[in-house]
Amino acid sequence: MGGLAAAAPPPRDWPAIPSPSGARTYWIAEYMEHNTVPMQIRGFESGESMQEISRYYEKWFADKTGYGVSHVGETRVLGARFGVYQVTVQLRAVPSGTAGRLVAAVVYEEGESAEQRAERVGKGFPRPPGSLVISDTLSYDEGQRNRTIMVTNGMSVETNALYLREQMIRLGWSLLQDRTVEGGERSALVFRRGREEMVVTIARRDDTYLVVASQTTPD
Is residue 171 a contact partner of residue 198, using CB atoms and an 8 Å limit? Predict the structure, then answer.
């Protein structure tokens, strides 16, 4: 994975999503990118019923472009288009009332196609041929930038570890820790390059192998 720049999220003109009166709101992610898609997520908890909260958002969404409602399990999802953003409100009933998520995600970047976006998922992280990138998530904490990549393939724990050791060292990383446990079914590698650190875990999951790489870059 290439060196990451300054640990500060790029500014964006996020749409303002209201929260119900009296609800307790909190940040889940002021800025993150999931598979290269920028998004912002807030959570809230309300003592009102889900039906009441849903009616509140139905009124707010009513005149918005592409407004629609769907259900994912027990979660009610309301959504609409706001320019380059897709806004969704996810609601579920809890014993205390309603728990919700307010999500704004970029659906279009000028000058970049969906194919170009897809090419950036997992870019820079070495992996054996035939590997499938499940997710690539970029997030920010105070003073640092974090990137987590999840990959699956049919290679053994030992083969994945050997490949990563060789490729990461070639990319300028130093190996600080190399542990294999659980009878060879799990491996943990820790790399460092300057002030950057990457922790990689490799584990067997049924008939496949899961590689999770978490890179931290201080500001």
Answer: no
H or E element that contains 57: helix 50-61
Cβ atoms of 57 and 78 within 8 Å: the answer is yes
| Alpha-carbon span 102 to 113, nearest angstrom | 26
Strand partners, 146: 139, 216
Tokens of 122: 């997992």
110-134 pLDDT, tens digit each: 666 777 777 888 899 999 999 999 9
Phi, psi for 161 (deg, rounded to 5): -65, -45
CB atoms within 10 A of CB 79: 20
Longest dimension (CA), the chain: 59
**Residue 136, exposed/middle/buried by CB under 10 A (0-12, 13-18, 19+)?**
buried
Residue 85 and residue 67 in contact, taking contact as beta carbons nearer than 8 Å: no
